[in-house]
Amino acid sequence: MPIQSSVRHWSAFAGLTGVLVAAVSGCGGGGGGTPAPGGGGARDACLANTPTGHARWTVLIYMDAANNLQPFSLQNVSQLASVGSDANVNIVLQWKQTSASEIKNRNGSVTPSFIGTRRYFLRQHNQTDVTSIAIPNGTDGAPALAADRLADPATNNSSHQADMGDYRTLADFVQWGTRTYPADHIAVVIWDHGSGWQPVYRAVNALNSSSSRPRAVAQDDNTNNEIETQQLPLGFLGASQKVDVLIFDASLEQMTEVAYQMRNSARVMIGSEDSPPGAGYPYDKWITGLKASGKNPCDLGNTIIQTFVSNYTTQTDVTQSILDLSKMQNVATNLDLLGQSLYVHRIDQATVIANARKNDSPEYAVAENYAGYRDIATFAANVRDTTNQASLKQAATNLVTALTDSTNGAIIEAAHGSSQAGSQGLSIYIPSPAEGYDSRYDTDPNYGPLALAQAAPNWVQFLKDQTQ
User: What is residue 436's predicted lDDT score, i.e. its pLDDT?
Assistant: First the structure.
């Protein structure tokens, strides 16, 4: 493979390896086994939409491969072409590649199969085509996809390419895709680097400090631009119908900060608390599952997380979950109440709080400068189980319930590798005092303007004033 398999969807660094254990929890709360199809019971997020007479699903894939993940885009597109669209499933792709000289965080050789931004309606292809799509040829690229190619999107930058790091480009794709390919259900995949609410970590050719801003997903090395968490909902405005499933094939996006920001933009959100392998989702497997079943958003989500964890049997640190975004307001409300109680008890319960944060609360991508990304359900459960303060115990219990309740919790299903015990499906920013909550985050364009920071100011106050 042109880039080593250790590349993740944040940058080119090696991850842990080992034996994978899929720990699927009915709604984020312990226990193993396989989730029931269409998990989540009768919750509204899992209900199928009324048939429209169109295809059952349209899957819109926003593939920003103008970076060092480019070789994996060839692999994923070849997987998609091996299954292709049918009467029930429309597979629609917007795919950008850029020149090797522009790609940062380079690890290995990168040969683009084209330069620019293209759109495709992917049909099923024979094995010869599938093999050729996966090979970087450095010419006009993907000749096997010539019959699938649609009109290119409009350009919006000086290099005459669509800037995939601009939320307006995402909005144009979602608006066009939902209008052109209506269906009973809509899924949108955002494929690229991700970093939760913080900047994507750039080890090579980082943007200088004067132009650096906190950005979260869709890194476009051609334009040095990315879509910020605050901007993500703008990418879904104007859709012809509401998006049912938002899928992040990117690192670290399954965060409370991101999910709350997107609470009104989709019904269900799927992604990873940690950094998935560079190869990302096995698209041929989950699209095949979608064709065979795909009755509702949760059925699709279960297919994705099951095929993902079973695809990486030697990766112990993989994580995946399905979130019910309609429950995120309740999560924010209870997070604010927990923050208020933590602040009150920040001194007398300092050791309890510090141990809850450090002990058995998984932390993600620490070596890559993402200090403080931890599983929120496990943190709250640790507080609940160790504090002797009744009010704090109750606040922590209420948040755990808001996250993991089998019918009303935000976490519908979660799965993880053996080294990620305690990954219940949703992370949050909980830096220790040593890691430091920086007060500069309170001002635009940093942490303060996030919708979650506005909805849970007591949580932010607690983060600032922890004592250990």
Answer: 75
